[in-house]
Request: fold
Amino acid sequence: MAAPAAVLLPSPRLSVNDDTVSEPSGLFVPEARQWLSTSPGRIASDGYSWMQAVHWVAGSGLYQPRQHRSHGPRSFGPTTVRVAQELAELSPCRPGIKYLVRRTGLSERSVEYHLGMLRETGLLAYIVKGTRVRGETAQASEFARMIPREYDVALGIRTVLRDPAAPAYTRSMTGIAEAGRGLMAKLAKKASRKVRRPGPKTSKAPVKGARKAAGQRGVTTVSDEAHCTPMQVGTSPASSAGSTSFPPESKLASGQRKSLIPKKSKAAAGGRKLTRVGRRFQLARELTQELDWLRGCSVPRIAWVTRNVADAGWTVTDVRAWLHFRRGDVTRVRRGSGLLAALLAGAETVLDTPEKRAAAVEDWRAAQEAARRYRIQQVRARIDRFEGDWQAPTSRAVQREVEAAITQVSEVASGDRRQDREHTTDDQAAPLELSEQERAGLRATAWGQLMRGETDLITGTVNVMGREAAERIYGADLVRRALQLADAAHSPLMTITHR
Reply:
């Protein structure tokens, strides 16, 4: 008798109520548990399933950022979801702050806020935290995309740890409760769509003149933007000019046809005419842009300071010319608006006509050109001094020896002039024999010439007889002043005139 065939029966299954799910009371992960090794969640298998969890957190309302901090975003909204979309496409998830700023258009502070919200909801966990060391290249943080434990509880998702020796965050999904399947389907639809960056608002009003054709339910609105029309290579029985509208014959009876190009309005062609207050603010804005010591000053305050000259029709060039002759080149100013108010006091009464202002501008430009030439001369002299083959000695004794050698060489080249030198020596000894009355007369004459800006008498004596002999005749103080005035007269920045 044959033995009966063995009947395979399914193994007993744990009793799990697939129709019951529980609602979490809150959602917040402290900072100490925002690392992969301490996270209570599990690693997402892919970016799609992770985005389902992101949309669930956004719609659950369990996470309120303002309960944990007093600043930053007020809710887990579309902006946070948009940042999460960028993270879902990275493998590995190692985003830099500048990368997210470039991709999302947010500021650095906003990106940091939303990354912190993703960590506090358990959706992100640190694998490696980035470094910010002074003098070194900043390193981006590496994250692990996590599924929060509250998400599994709310949808009734069953998980299992296949390797008992593996960490708890490596557990995988094995099933879902019947009550959570509908919500999972909705989250799947949301995860498949992309949250776009909000663009500028455009008008959706229909174009004027559009009519609704018979037998049609609606007419597609034509946008104001220019669209490209595809080129038709083949022939078509319908004419492409069938929709072209021509003007009626009554408009062409006189032989004149109005232009189809709209005329520009006078306001658009000539620009809007500024009011008195507008001219003040325009002058103030130009001054803050062109004058370094007014940078950072309040434009309304500068407009109030320059109200008188602006009402008188002054331009920024007129103001700069006045400031140059009133103050000169300003290098260090403590309060720009206060100094400007002091310098412009009464300016509109001094330069009260356009001719006077034009003359001041010409003088200012001439002074700028003279200063430019003087700087060029200084640069050339410095180059010749430091880059030339020969440099003048710094020692006074060596300088006298060099001058004597140059004099001797020039005398040999031009012939023997010893007789002239002896005559010059006799002239140098002559001042020692002058009386005190004669010296006083020479000093009075030289002082009078110095007051008129003339230094020929003293400088001639210095060149012929030497500075020591000139100081014995005129005095050291008078010689020093004459030489200083003679040196200043060679500068293009100074002009000496007679009254």
The CA atoms of residues 45 and 408 lie 99 Å apart. Residues 276-362 form one domain.
